[in-house]
Amino acid sequence: EVLSLLQEKNPAFKPVLAIIQVSRERGSIIDEILKINEDTRVHGLALQISESSFSNKVLNALKPEKDVDGVTDINLGKLVRGDAHECFVSPVARAVIELLEKSGMMSFRNANVVSSGRRWLREQQYSRWRLHCLKLQPLSPVPSDIEISRAQTPKAVDVLAKEIGLLPDEIEIYGKSKAKVRLSLLERLKDQADGKYVLVAGITPTPLGEGKSTVTIGLVQALTAHLNVNSFACLRQPSQGPTFGVKGGAAGGGYAQVIPMEEFNLHLTGDIHAITAANNLLAAAIDTRILHENTQTDKALYNRLVPSVNGVREFSKIQLARLKRLGIKKTDPNTLTEEEMRKFARLDIDPSTVTWQRVLDTNDRFLRKITIGQANTEKGYSRQAQFDIAVASEIMAVLALTDSLTDMKERLGRMVVASDKSGQPVTAEDLGVTGALTVLMKDAIKPNLMQTLEGTPVFVHAGPFANIAHGNSSVLADKIALKLVGEEGFVVTEAGFGADIGMEKFFNIKCRASGLVPNVVVLVATVRALKMHGGGPSVTAGIPLKREYTEENIPLVADGCCNLQKQIQITQLFGVPVVVALNVFKTDTRAEIDLVCELAKRAGAFDAVPCYHWSVGGKGSVDLARAVREAASEGSRFQFLYDVQLPIVEKIRTIAQAVYGAKDIELSPEAQAKIERYTQQGFGNLPICMAKTHLSLSHQPDKKGVPKDFILPISDVRASIGAGFIYPLVGTMSTMPGLPTRPCFYDIDLDTETEQVKGLF
Question: How many CB atoms lie within 10 A of CB 529?
Fold first, then answer.
């Protein structure tokens, strides 16, 4: 009867009982139990084993939730304690208690299986959060970021996961405070309505910093810890290049941080290392293939690519796929003609067209141009190459834009690494490396769960730079978070650098890939940064600020608001309401704060709110949280800036004129030739990802405010086909940062007694 009622609402539901009936050695029994424990199709597990095989170790290997005979210590303990409603009672005991009436023991076991199935069904549904927020005790003056982080004790990550409705088998725990979340959750919650989607962007960056990550964390702390609204922050994983270089970490700051901040800023769970390994495997495959094709006959090359093993010669799965693409309808390696063997074996890569570079997650200017292949073993094959920073790898962009393991594998295979001598694209799939790349990336695709200082959830996943890539965290993290927060909740994610770069790419690239529609943009500004845009003196790291930045200067602020007004106008191009968050510093005066908020509203902002989360945590951003909730209720009229079917040149021109304010664009001969090649190869209908300085709306970093009447030079154009965009290079752009005279690493150290990291910020 119970089963019939359950199946009325869930027709596909069938509770399954597995019985292990053996008389083998104990070790193999436990292996079988553990296997069935993880099988989501099985709801109940019973043991029928010989007396000699019984032991506590065997019985307690069963998951209590599947122990329908009630033999595990956990189920027996609950029964003894009087909590029979929370456990499975032994069918034998129940049958004896009811004096072996009609039903008998097997019926009670079946009842337990149905109960287990009902519990499983209940777990599959969305559950309300039962979040316990952590209390803050802000100090004044505000201590260093790492001191604040270390003073707070984070919740165990499995506790946090349970509080927000994740099931035990949906997380993979890394230490005490990090976990990966499995993508199976998306299938479980596929019918759950999404929450509200908020993007945090900023004005054009300055060396003074605007604090987008801090605002993102302060906002979710305010929403959840102070307004009792479910919210999730989705952030990028920082590259270790800037962490040890000049910028420092990216976990937020003050009393609005992700904790533990040293784990956030360093290796995390190894995703960037996985990207580095995958990227460099592909780079090695390219040059190795060129070498072997240059030094072997067609027949020798073919015989090595398809060797005979124990007298049997077979194509691998990926080689069969290559045959199909070539139009060769054969599966027996021994039946190919000489021409077919040559066609299959030779990629004929033109070394001058190789665009795939090796990567390293360290700022190292001396790897910007190198010569590879100088050893005698490479038989005279050498060429000029370079290293990029790891987060500039196309594999990072693929990770950030994919929506499933299958999609990631397809995208990795589509990555174009060079052209052959007839001008056709050569892909990772052609090189036979797609499967290996997917294996290296199989764990990196799962978002990383962490928490804020106030115990609210954060996803940290993917970390492409915004000036040389699309600058946004992963689609998968956003999609999972939108399901977990529920229909009334909020997901707050951040776009790199200014709205003209990170936000434009979020809308035109990320939202196209994800199909998600943003509800609100939060635009971050500071009085100090606006003063620089208004003509304030230059700023050098390590040198005290000049008095223009530490004393009230209304004219300078008013002049600098032109940049804020321009970024508001850019947001309005996409039809999304914008709330300005003014990140307040102690040197800001009330008159300066009021002026910025007033000018922002006049420029079309839905609201403009001063924020104090850095000094007091989430309660300092409650006004911002309320403004965001109100703006989200107004509705979004989101639209893309351009139609992807437009020619590549027109899409570039649209961004340059509508977003940056350029008069026109100017293509170098190389850029023009690349555009023609990509169009001919069938890649003309991809969105555009501009690689441009983040320090100005123009291509000249020293041009602050709102530059006008400039011609935007396009020096080169490249293609990230796996990621799914064309990226023009504006002016001179480096994809490998360098170290300054005094890098951050001078201050970073380890206390060898306590193993605590010092000096990170």
Answer: 28
User: Is residue 241 predicted with pLDDT exceeding 90?
Assistant: no
Q: Which residue has the tokens 């790897």?
A: 367
What would the DSSP string read from start to end of 529-540? HHHHHTTPPP--
Comparing 251 with 696, the larger pLDDT belongs to: 696
Residue in 94, 118, 182, 247 annotated catalytic = 247
List % helix, strand, coil for the chain (3-state, nearest 5).
45, 15, 40
Indicate which residue of 244, 497, 574, 725 is catalytic. Answer: 497
Return mean pLDDT, the chain. Answer: 92
Tens-digit pLDDT profile for residues 575-605: 999 999 999 999 999 999 999 999 999 999 9
Q: Is 212 among the residues known to form the active site?
A: yes
Report the C-alpha gap between 645 and 717 in whole angstroms: 18
Active site residue 94: no
Interatomic CA distance for residues 74 and 67, integer angstroms? 10
Q: How many Cα atoms are found within 13 Å in the side-chain-facing hemisphere of 63?
A: 21
Q: How far is CA 711 from the centre of its chain?
A: 34
Distance CA 239, CA 465 (A): 9
CA 187 – CA 117 distance, rounded (Å): 18
Number of Cβ atoms within 10 Å of the Cβ of 760 = 22
Catalytic residue of the set 72, 206, 214, 216: 214
Q: Determine the Cα angle at 462 with ends 464 and 216, to 5°.
A: 90
User: Within 10 A of 489 (CB to CB), how many other CB atoms are there?
Assistant: 21
Catalytic residue among 196, 236, 629, 692: 236
DSSP 656: I
- Active-site pick, 212, 358, 619, 692: 212
Whether 95 is catalytic is: no
Provide CB contacts within 8 A for 253, sequence distance 6+.
145, 211, 213, 214, 614, 761
Q: Which of 614, 683, 710, 725 is catalytic?
A: 614
CA-wise closest residue to 533 among 548, 517, 514, 522: 548
The catalytic residue among 222, 392, 466, 662 is: 466
Q: Which of 13, 54, 585, 638 is catalytic?
A: 585
In the annotation, is 66 catalytic?
Answer: no
Catalytic residue flag (residue 704): no
Q: What is the pLDDT of residues 46-76, one digit of tens each?
A: 988 877 777 888 889 999 999 999 889 998 8
pTM score: 0.89
Task: State the DSSP H helix or E strand holding residue 286, giving kind and residue range, or none if neither.
Answer: helix 271-295
Strands (E), 10-118: 17-22, 44-49
What are φ and ψ of residue 106, in 5° steps? -60, -35
Tell me whether residue 204 is one of the annotated catalytic residues.
no
More confident residue, 108 or 144: 144
Report the pLDDT averaged over residues 118-133.
83
